């Protein structure tokens, strides 16, 4: 199938004619190279690994096990040029309002830039503001971590409970789990769900006198967070009296007036700005729980890792630029090959929350159906993103990855070194499994091989012929591998920034706005309207038959 751009106008610096031509050529090229025989291309091209992998310091991105060749990369580079990806990247770094539907700049890169950098929004350098909040966070974190800032009864803080959801939860929750070997502060907990079970289970076993709540919400209106924060305040006030609230609450928000109304002492309120999207906010004060857990110096290493990737993204030529190449291969899989999903499999238990974090980053950014100008898209947009750590996933859903009817590109992520030198055997087994899975996806197993293997095990020929088809793996299934030396704050920051910029690159190729999220609004509005119906305060006249039936059941069983 030859892909066509659909003739819509794309805004920005897009050369639509060149884009549609490159896209059509990519479709034709995909058909020409199919079926792409991985074993053959590795045999014929001894330089394939070096041609289809990139390094940035110790970070390695390998896409040699995907069905791309040198021509594919040329066409993808033409596509990126036609889509104006680099020009738009520069507009992002320049603080332009590239989030057009919300008329906002997109400058999370400023949050990890050094103090002396010059990054401006609407003509104003924001670096002084960024570092002033960082310095205040560091002073606060130091005072909590050292025990100098105590709870109302004079006990030091032993547990921090972050109350937030979406971007105000997933980033800090993912990063604090990832950086467990560096924890030397209070224990951190995360409450996000409106389900009372979440806060109830979290508070069980915590001592109010030793607990600090961080209420994290960009808007300070999100119903989940406000409800959980009110429950936490009551829990604390019931135990220690309402005057104790001041020493047990801090807040992170862009809506400082609403925080003040909630009653949190302004010395414990840390702001950020509307040019920081929720799912890009863990670098801002939203990262406070990370800083409380690992300390300000290591938090700055985390920011430095992301900044290193920003500089690479901003300056490396297209073909040597990891986020650009990562995005181009992603586009190849999603649009040219029409694969509906991608699996992210960290071979690192501490990255267990990475797939969930990337679900918001990728799917809330690129799960869009209209172009920047509001016209419907003509190509698929963001894929379904999912995953679990290896090796657990191998014993759950890898069956489908190997033999299912959909092809799902897999992203393997692993560190060369673990943090448990005394458990080196575990690390060796982990890495062997990681490599084996990408190899198995690529190599597969033919019917003849499966039959021969059964016969070699002593199975009679007739029986072997019957069983062998179940043991065939098509192979030639694409995967990418990301490796780095060790998961430390710097490496984590760099990895997350790589993924952020990949999402950006893909969005420019899709022609969509990655920085709004109108798709989450309708459900919120309907939940507000349904609340009185669920409680029985209103009849719910005019409800659709299905919802009315469900409400009737719930009311009967309440
Ligand atoms: O899910 C929608 C969303 O707006 C996310 O983008 C955001 O991260 C989350 O809700 C939480 O919003 P807030 O930080 O304003 O509470």
TrEMBL record:
GO molecular function: carbohydrate derivative binding; glucose-6-phosphate isomerase activity; monosaccharide binding
InterPro entries: G6P_Isomerase, G6P_Isomerase_C, Phosphoglucose_isomerase_CS, SIS_dom_sf, SIS_PGI_1, SIS_PGI_2
GO cellular component, one term: cytosol
EC number(s) given by UniProt: 5.3.1.9
One Pfam family this sequence matches: PGI
Transmembrane portions of the chain: none
Enzyme class: isomerase
Gene3D superfamilies: 1.10.1390.10, Glucose-6-phosphate isomerase like protein, domain 1
Biological function: Catalyzes the reversible isomerization of glucose-6-phosphate to fructose-6-phosphate.
The name this protein goes by in its record: Glucose-6-phosphate isomerase
Protein's organism: Nitratireductor mangrovi
Lineage: Bacteria, Pseudomonadati, Pseudomonadota, Alphaproteobacteria, Hyphomicrobiales
Gene from which this protein is expressed: pgi
